[in-house]
Write a structure and sequence with these properties.
The structure holds 2 protein chains of 2 kinds. Chain A is mainly α. Chain A has helices at 5-11, 16-23, 27-34, 42-52, 56-59, and strands spanning 2-3, 60-61. Chain A has a single domain, classed as Orthogonal Bundle (434 Repressor (Amino-terminal Domain)). In chain B, 13% of the residues are buried. The chains are: A mainly alpha, B mainly alpha. The interface between A and B is medium-sized, with 20 and 16 residues.
């Protein structure tokens, strides 16, 4: 699964730690998702899309 | 969303202390360094192997409960230690915890099946008890080592 979290973080000028805090997860989890080592739950993906103001499809794509 | 029940994070440290102490005392117990706490307790079943007629059911009986206290302390603290919340509990940590439980189940039941095939007689009962202790110990070892690796691995990668 490909992810554009890093891009959206950059657009919103947000660090991994800030994003993690807003989503209520650890920074390591954000890092793991960005590295493609962990697929987030639907709930977390929806929280991210709400936070970035985009659809889930824009953040995550299948390979 | 429904959450799975976990113990509060503040129980982690007391559980660790009790777990370590009870583990040491259990090792000493099986090395024949033990004490006795003889008291009258209500027992569901109390039997001896020889002669079988000495068995008693649902009675008050004088028993040494030292081992029972140790086991209860060990199992309760071990379970609380493995299943208490982290300071920031998220789905990744839950996933690691469940994965550790899965690996421990595979490992212990593989050994149990081998024990079933290769161990006979009363020794098998000792082995089952050993598996119960191992289950709690291994769940904790797998979980905390995986958590440590996860935290290390993703602490510096893709750093901002």
């Amino acid at each position: 699964m490909k992810t554009k979290i890093k891009v959206f973080r950059a657009i919103h000028d947000m660090t991994q730690a800030e994003l993690a805090e807003k989503l209520g997860v650890t920074r390591q989890t954000i890092n793991a998702i960005e590295a493609g080592k962990y697929a987030p739950s639907v709930e977390l993906a929806l929280k991210m899309s709400k936070l970035f103001g985009v659809t889930v499809n824009e953040i995550f794509q299948l390979d | 969303m429904k959450r799975i029940y976990l113990f509060p994070n503040k129980l982690k440290l007391p559980a660790l202390v009790v777990f370590v102490i009870s583990l040491i005392l259990i090792i000493l117990y099986y090395s024949d360094i033990k004490t006795e706490i003889n008291t009258t307790v209500f027992v569901f079943v109390s039997d001896t192997f020889f002669p079988k007629s000495n068995s008693s059911y649902f009675v008050f009986d004088k028993q040494d409960i030292y081992n029972e206290i140790l086991d209860c302390a060990f199992f309760v603290s071990g379970i609380v230690l493995a299943f208490s919340r982290e300071k920031i509990e998220d789905e990744m940590i839950t996933f690691i915890r469940l994965k550790s439980l899965l690996y421990t189940t595979y490992f212990i039941f593989t050994l149990l099946i081998l024990g079933e095939i290769f161990v006979y007689g009363l020794s098998f009962l000792n082995i089952i008890m050993g598996f119960l202790y191992s289950f709690v110990i291994l769940t904790n070892i797998f979980y905390y080592s995986k958590l440590f690796i996860y935290k290390k691995q993703f602490s510096h990668e893709n750093e901002d």
